[in-house]
Automatic annotation (TrEMBL):
<dbReference type="GO" id="GO:0008177">
    <property type="term" value="F:succinate dehydrogenase (quinone) activity"/>
</dbReference>
<dbReference type="GO" id="GO:0050660">
    <property type="term" value="F:flavin adenine dinucleotide binding"/>
</dbReference>
<keyword id="KW-0813">Transport</keyword>
<dbReference type="InterPro" id="IPR011280">
    <property type="entry name" value="Succ_DH/Fum_Rdt_flav_su"/>
</dbReference>
<dbReference type="GO" id="GO:0009061">
    <property type="term" value="P:anaerobic respiration"/>
</dbReference>
<protein>
    <recommendedName>
        <fullName>succinate dehydrogenase</fullName>
        <ecNumber>1.3.5.1</ecNumber>
    </recommendedName>
</protein>
<dbReference type="GO" id="GO:0005886">
    <property type="term" value="C:plasma membrane"/>
</dbReference>
<dbReference type="InterPro" id="IPR003953">
    <property type="entry name" value="FAD-dep_OxRdtase_2_FAD-bd"/>
</dbReference>
<feature type="active site" description="Proton acceptor">
    <location>
        <position position="338"/>
    </location>
</feature>
<keyword id="KW-0560">Oxidoreductase</keyword>
<dbReference type="GO" id="GO:0009055">
    <property type="term" value="F:electron transfer activity"/>
</dbReference>
<dbReference type="InterPro" id="IPR027477">
    <property type="entry name" value="Succ_DH/fumarate_Rdtase_cat_sf"/>
</dbReference>
<dbReference type="InterPro" id="IPR037099">
    <property type="entry name" value="Fum_R/Succ_DH_flav-like_C_sf"/>
</dbReference>
<keyword id="KW-0472">Membrane</keyword>
<dbReference type="InterPro" id="IPR036188">
    <property type="entry name" value="FAD/NAD-bd_sf"/>
</dbReference>
<comment type="similarity">
    <text>Belongs to the FAD-dependent oxidoreductase 2 family. FRD/SDH subfamily.</text>
</comment>
<feature type="domain" description="Fumarate reductase/succinate dehydrogenase flavoprotein-like C-terminal">
    <location>
        <begin position="532"/>
        <end position="670"/>
    </location>
</feature>
Length: 671
């Protein structure tokens, strides 16, 4: 085991990034025309990075498995993007965003990276406004803000409930400008299936044209992975069904360490699972917790009456409801961080208070907000003695303006009007904080191989605060990577074009082709989804919202057995030289079956509770924090970075010790 060098610059935290930029090596504009960069993934991180690198003058190739970069999963982000602009005058600052992020991540992130993220956050908003992103504005025309969980200020910029889509269109427009200039060559409907290393440096990728099946070689002086997270290892998640871990896992197997795989976020506000036939789950934005109040009935008789259809939730009076987040966490109420809110919902449902047929749902109620906004609007419009109906109509209009598309989506899926009856929600797998290990430069443990956005591990620790995913993706792509990669590429100006007719490319292409041929020639009896669902059940049951040592040991054994059966009995129809969705899935599930075992191994190794990683053996006993997650800083204040050694169970642990010089290490409290 080695101790990893994060390459954090020396000096005061507040000046590290500025001093770093002042002293790095640069590439002059004429030389940038001779340097090639590959970007895998064109969501917010990849799209912004590609556009910025091309604008600087580099030759960029982009790869995405979707038919257009506009289809990247970033489009699904709903609630907003954080930035420390203090537009509300409520005490926000760069330091407070930095502090909230480190605390929200349960003190398991790297201070220098998080401070840099907070520092550049304000620039992101200016960039996106310049691109025409239609952020919500207040009556005076200034950009509006709302609150998200884990903070006491309003710093989240938003565009109704479709912020990710609008930001992605901004990045896509910046990409299109460079595509038109010939500086970006897009390869849509292409999937990266391996990275190619030459003399220890990343020099290209092997990709498959998903329409024709052709295997292609692409070379570059540096490769950037921006392929998102691995939440679909659970099968059911809020991620798009195509979201996968293949690019990240392939580079892991070629030498890039994989960090903190057990840090997975369970989002508290999702539409509950309704049956075994589902292929994904639907997110309801965390922004809804600004105005929605979460509750379950106080009395078990009322729970049973609601499940049996004998009572409606609106039949219960205020004193018959348990607003359990407001009761347990009075300082933050419904805006506690996601891991805290998710575990609280699970606790109530496990105790028998779940309100739907499966017993896995709690209510998210907007009646109070509609009434509050209605009375406020009545005063604004000088309506005296407004009727209940009028107050409802006025209040509904405000709620609709803020969240209308989310309410519409809920009604289409559940067939209930959420304005009139509370939404039902339950936690679901959402975001992954773990990912490829990177240093301060966003470089992996392989020279010339970078990883940005959700695909890396760097900024969120053990729990991501809401609205920080979009912030990190755009910070990495627009404002961090273009500097750090330039320092590396300044030493590549004499390298010349990278050839693809070399033994290294031959070997990588052969590995990819052999794997494809294996799947197509394997005469098994089970579909790919059969194995994916089985893996998902193991992951949810034993590596889900809570974990224990016995369950994690069982998971490792069961996943390995499932993987062995997969290679013996999986059936993949069709051929290689065509559009073959089952072949695509086979490769992705094969990677999940390895990642899942490493996930369980990492969770077993980390015998503490922190953020989204809740070990049942590590809880607070007695006192005000009774039952809350108990962190162990003496033994686990480090990043777990795993080196691939042929089998997930044989992976070697490397540690990056975390130092906290600006923030005091202490147990989180949101009470």
């Amino acid at each position: 085991m080695s101790v990893l060098d994060s390459k954090v610059p020396k000096g005061p935290l507040k000046t590290k990034w500025t001093d770093y930029k002042n002293h790095i090596d640069l590439v002059n504009p004429a030389n940038k025309r001779n340097i090639d960069v590959i970007v895998v993934g064109t969501g917010l991180a990849g799209g912004s990075a590609a556009a910025t690198l091309a604008e600087l003058g580099y030759n960029v190739k982009t790869f995405c498995y979707q038919d257009s970069p506009r289809r990247a999963h970033s489009i699904a982000a709903q609630g907003g993007i954080n930035a420390a602009k203090n537009y509300q005058g409520d005490g926000d600052s760069t330091y407070r965003l930095f502090y909230d992020t480190v605390k929200g991540g349960d003190y398991r992130s790297r201070e220098a990276n998080v401070y840099r993220l907070a520092e550049v956050s304000a620039n992101i908003i200016d960039q996106c406004v310049a691109q025409g992103v239609p952020f919500a504005r207040d009556y005076g025309g200034l950009l509006d803000n709302r609150s998200f969980g884990g903070v006491l200020v309003s710093r989240t910029f938003y565009a109704k409930g479709q912020t990710g889509q609008q930001l992605l269109l901004g990045a896509y427009s910046a990409m299109n400008r460079q595509i038109a200039r010939g500086k970006i060559t897009p390869f849509n409907r292409h999937e990266m299936l391996d990275v190619v290393k030459v003399n220890g440096k990343a020099r290209g990728i092997i990709a498959r044209d998903l329409v024709t099946g052709e295997i292609e070689r692409h070379s570059a002086h540096a490769v950037v992975i921006a392929s998102g997270g691995y939440g679909n290892v659970y099968f059911l998640s809020t991620n798009a069904m195509g979201s996968n871990a293949t690019a990240a896992w392939k580079i892991h197997k070629k030498g890039a360490f994989f960090a903190n795989p057990c840090y997975t976020q369970i989002h508290p506000t999702c539409i509950p699972r309704s049956g075994d036939y589902q292929s994904k789950l639907t997110l309801m934005s965390e922004s809804l917790r600004n105005d929605g109040r979460i509750w379950v009935p106080k009395n078990i008789d009322d729970v049973m009456a609601i499940r049996e259809g004998k009572k409606k939730p609106t039949d219960l009076s205020e004193d018959e409801r348990d607003y359990y987040l407001e009761r347990r966490y009075p300082a933050f109420g419904n805006l506690v961080p996601r891991d805290v809110a998710s575990r609280a919902a699970k606790e109530r449902c496990d105790a028998g208070y779940g309100v739907n047929a499966t017993g896995e749902a709690v209510y998210l109620d907007f009646a109070s907000a509609i009434e509050r906004y209605g009375k406020e609007q009545a005063k604004i419009h000088n309506i005296e003695n407004a009727s209940k109906e009028k107050i409802y109509d006025l209040g509904k209009a405000i709620v609709e303006a803020k969240y209308g598309n989310l309410f519409q989506m809920y009604e289409k899926i559940v067939d209930q009007d959420p304005y009139k009856t509370p939404m039902m929600i339950y936690p679901a797998v959402h975001y992954t904080m773990g990912g490829v290990w990177v240093d301060y430069n966003l470089m992996t443990t392989v020279d010339g191989l970078y990883c940005i956005g959700e695909a890396n591990f760097s900024d969120h620790g053990a729990n991501r605060l809401g609205a920080s995913a979009l912030m990190q993706g755009l910070a990495d792509g627009y404002f961090v990577l273009p500097y750090t990669i330039g320092d590396y590429l300044s030493h590549e100006i004499r390298t010349g074009k990278i050839a693809t007719d070399t033994p290294e490319f031959d070997e990588a292409e052969k590995e990819v082709t052999d794997k494809i041929n294996f799947f197509l020639n394997n005469k098994g009896s089970h579909s790919v989804d059969y194995y994916h669902k089985k893996l998902g059940k193991i992951m949810w049951d034993k590596c889900g919202m809570s974990r224990n040592a016995a369950g994690l040991k069982e998971a490792m054994v069961e996943i390995k057995e499932l993987r062995e059966d997969f290679y013996k009995n999986v059936s993949v129809p069709g051929t290689a030289n065509e559009l073959n969705a089952e072949l695509e899935k086979a490769g992705r599930v094969a990677d999940f079956l390895e990642l899942g075992e490493l996930f369980a191994k990492d969770a077993l190794e980390r015998a503490e509770s922190c953020g989204g990683h809740f070990r049942e053996e590590s809880v607070e006993i007695g006192g005000e924090q009774e039952g809350e997650a108990k962190r162990n800083d003496a033994d686990f204040a480090f990043v777990s970075a795993w080196e691939y050694k042929g089998e997930p169970s044989a992976a070697v642990l490397h540690k990056e010790q975390l130092e906290f010089n600006e923030i005091e290490l202490k147990q989180r409290s949101y009470k």
